[in-house]
Amino acid sequence: DQQVKQNSPSLSVQEGRISILNCDYTNSMFDYFLWYKKYPAEGPTFLISISSIKDKNEDGRFTVFLNKSAKHLSLHIVPSQPGDSAVYFCAASDGNNRLAFGKGNQVVVIP
Amino acid sequence: DTEVTQTPKHLVMGMTNKKSLKCEQHMGHRAMYWYKQKAKKPPELMFVYSYEKLSINESVPSRFSPECPNSSLLNLHLHALQPEDSALYLCASSQIGVGGNQPQHFGDGTRLSIL
């Protein structure tokens, strides 16, 4: 049973525009959420996280929004750059050092 | 550049071989992890070490044997693996914070192929 779901497996966006990635979760015990970026032949790179006590966290071009009542989070990348082309994983933790990952979204930024 | 270093990057072994995967971090993190990732799938947790003690084993077969010799090193000993064990093996580390909510930082993985 997948506890973290990422639909729309791929996204293409024009350079300079906004990329929006969505993630839904089912476990009410999750209280910490993360986004990772992964290039081919590399491990996942931590991008940004958010605690369940917040509804927004921003770091440069990356902003994560959390809607606890809907069990939904999203990652906004603006402006999108060609180097952002990668697979993005949503992950969630219930505080016991276990991370549950979504299946990932492929993002392609078109120059 | 990743701050979690994994060696080797690639490993091909037969089903009767014994080999080890190594992971090293110098960020002062006291939690270390092994994950397995199959193609087009998300990483799956295998083991968690906290303060050099095994704290989580996700029902991993005994042909995988983890070891944490010190706070900077994590090994995964492999013996009598099966072809379905072919995958990317990722190591990660994190600080241990209040409630455990700290980001995990990953190495680039070892690509393992079992013949």
Overview of the molecule:
The complex is a heterodimer of chains A (111) and B (115). Chain A is an all-beta fold and 111 residues long. In chain A, 0% of the residues lie in helices and 55% in strands. In chain A, the strands form two sheets. In chain A, strands 2, 4, 5, 9, 10 and 11 form a six-stranded mixed β-sheet that branches. In chain A, strands 1-3-8-7-6 form a five-stranded antiparallel β-sheet, with no helix packed on it. Chain B has 115 residues and is an all-beta fold. Chain B has no helices and eleven strands. In chain B, strands 2, 4, 5, 6, 9, 10 and 11 form a seven-stranded mixed β-sheet that branches. Chain B is globular. Chain A binds chain B through residues 31-32, 34, 36, 41-46, 49, 51, 89, 93, 95-99, 101-104, and chain B through 2, 4, 6, 31, 33, 40-43, 45, 48, 50, 55-56, 90, 92, 94, 99-101, 103-109.
H and E string of chain A: EEEEEEEEEEE
The oligomeric status of these chains comes to: heterodimer
The strand count of chain A comes to: 11
The helix/strand series of chain B, from N terminus to C terminus, equals EEEEEEEEEEE
Residues in β-strands, percent of chain B:
over 45%
Mean pLDDT of chain A: 94
Ranges of chain A where pLDDT stays below 50 over 5 or more residues in a row are: none
Which geometry of chain B do the CA atoms define? globular
